[in-house]
Specification:
alpha/beta, homodimer, 36% helix, Nucleotidyltransferase, domain 5
Chain lengths: 321, 321
């Protein structure tokens, strides 16, 4: 019987690296998680990945063939294969594609995790069958991936899709990147907390949040209080939805996607975020764009999304999926 | 001797329609301008175009062969061939591609004028040799065309690239489109006048502009006064450059173009606009984007740009240019 191709998806984080085998259908056959040990060289991490997966490949050598590897990593450049001085890793500039190719002996591609997510949604998630879509991943920050005519947009420098640092208010909040008014300072777990804290100063209504030191307030806590009717928490989600809605309209009028897919933990905030975001987006679209663009939550099971996204890159590159 | 292919570029405006034959090199062989007569049906306009060009085609039938037509028109949809209820024409929804194909008997494509400009710059202008670029056309309004990986972005609805209606300030100026804070309300001939008028109220410095009714102030007048050192006029260009710079940074971080090309009359404003726009853009880019993206004035002779843009669409579609 012919061997079935599988792809290895690797998602490299500052603390842990997760990886796993993904079939053409998007099914994850096996998933692993190991500490990244970010102070050791990249080569060391890849050798440990090889050690972990060799058992599975040996046991299944009559069924599956590893056909390629897709990697999602911070500051990864699709064109060069480099991971360029990643913020949470002590690697400096390193050509991870070369290293993985040498150690695992199969074709390899790399991009950043947000781009990988976009491919994951198009191949296996909420964007299945679409040719034009955008994913926005809400976590501590805001990541994005842009797909135009079935292809991920990498741009002239390989770094396209930095939607988190688009300026939404040029007189606005300071961002750790050194600029002002970056979208990620408003629409992200961090941004939601900043909005709530600002509103505690601006409003005089009572709120449970007044009893908590501002550096202990979390987006999850604000969400839970919003469900209980806390005014500040509700206004926080309304303002977040407004800015996300305006920004979705803005990017929609640039690449005209069929859908904007919201990923990450906050995508679960349902009516409090996604429904309102859609309303605000519609208000900020010109007439020939209205009632066309969907706002959808991720269609990929939360725990698997990083590995599936990275593997989707390999499926996209090394097969005619 | 083999016949040389030429393309006909047609740019349809509310008042006049210009068209002309363009060679593969981008050279315009002959250009025409006739009144659009927007109250008559579209078919009438195309028949008059045919009457105008037939003499040239007859005289040159041993040298040139008309291989295709590209059309730039307001509210034109690339996918459907429709011009959908164009604002300054009494046509309703009309399939202009079908009409032109029937009357001229050659392959036809259509898009809006701003998209056509982007193709013109890539094939024959400042974007020659680039695969990722954006054009911003500053006139009464603000039009844009986005090219990713050598292809114009049409998006899921055929209307991608409506950068003039991206919101730059959600508490900002009202726009005739019904929204607030649209970029075109700030960065366009109209927007520049609005900024100057606003500043006349905000500032107390003397200005020649105080002697002119606000509905007589023009962008050209403000430009001339800025060159003479008028404070309000200078601040107007500075603010315009700031908003254009922020917006260039924003769109750059989405599709990562090699260059943003500024077209239209205001592109000639040189140091007063383009140089400052570049400075403001750099201030609003994240570190891995800095010092990479060019801001360039159009590389196409002003009078020819509409016809060259429209013909570029035909060259792009109907040859392997």
């Amino acid at each position: 019987m012919a061997l079935k191709n599988i792809m290895l998806g690797i998602d490299i984080g500052g603390t842990n690296t997760v990886f796993g085998f993904v079939r053409k259908s998007g099914v994850v056959l096996k998933e692993y998680s190991i500490p990244t040990q970010s102070k050791k060289p990249a080569k060391d991490l890849i050798k440990r990945i090889k050690a972990e997966i060799s058992e599975f490949l040996k046991q299944n050598k009559k069924t599956y063939k590893l056909a390629g590897v897709g990697i999602g990593a911070p500051n990864a450049n699709y064109y060069t294969g480099l991971v360029e001085n990643p913020p949470n890793l002590k690697w400096g500039d390193v050509n991870l594609v070369e290293i993985v190719k040498d150690i695992l002996g199969v074709p390899v591609r790399i991009t950043n995790d947000a781009n990988a997510s976009a491919l994951g949604e198009m191949l296996f998630g909420a964007g299945k069958g679409m040719k034009d879509l955008i994913t926005i991943t809400l976590g501590t920050g805001l990541g994005s991936g842009i797909i135009v005519d079935g292809k991920l947009v990498y741009g002239s420098n390989g770094y396209a899709g930095e939607f988190g640092h688009v300026c939404i208010d040029f007189r606005g909040r300071y961002c750790p990147c050194g600029k002002r008014g970056c979208l990620e300072g408003y629409v992200s777990a961090t941004g939601i907390v900043r909005t709530a804290v600002e509103l505690l100063g601006k409003r005089i209504c009572p709120s449970k949040l007044r009893e908590i030191p501002s550096n202990h307030i979390t987006a999850k806590l604000i969400y839970d209080l919003a469900l209980k009717g806390d005014e500040i928490a509700l206004e926080t989600f309304d303002f977040t939805s407004q800015l996300l809605g305006v920004s979705c309209a803005n990017v929609a009028m640039i690449t005209a996607p069929e859908a904007i897919i919201i990923c990450g933990g906050l995508a679960q905030a349902g009516d409090l975020l996604l429904k309102k975001t859609k309303e605000y987006m519609e208000n900020h679209l010109i007439s020939n764009y209205k009632n066309q663009i969907k706002i959808l939550p991720s269609g990929i099971k939360k725990g698997n999304s990083a590995v599936i996204g990275a593997a989707a890159l390999a499926w996209k590159e090394f097969s005619n999926i």
